[in-house]
Amino acid sequence: MGSLTPLQQEIRRLAKENDTVILAHNYQPPEIQAIADYIGDSFGLCQQAQHIEEETILFCGVRFMAETAAILNPTKRVLIPDLKARCPMAAQLPPKLIREAKQKHPDVPVVLYVNTTAEAKAEADVVCTSSNLCTILQALNTNPVIFGPDGNMAEYARHICGYDIIPIPDHGFCHVHVTFSFDPQTLAWKQEHPDAKLLVHPECGWNIQEQADFIGSTGQMLQYARDSSASTFIICTEVDLVTRMQREIPGKQFIPALDYAVCKAMKKLTLEKIKASLVHNQYPVTVAKPVADKARSAIQRMLDLSSPKD
Ligand code: 13P
Ligand code: SF4
Question: I need a surface site. Which of 10, 33, 251, 284 has the fewest CB within 10 A?
Answer without folding.
Answer: 251
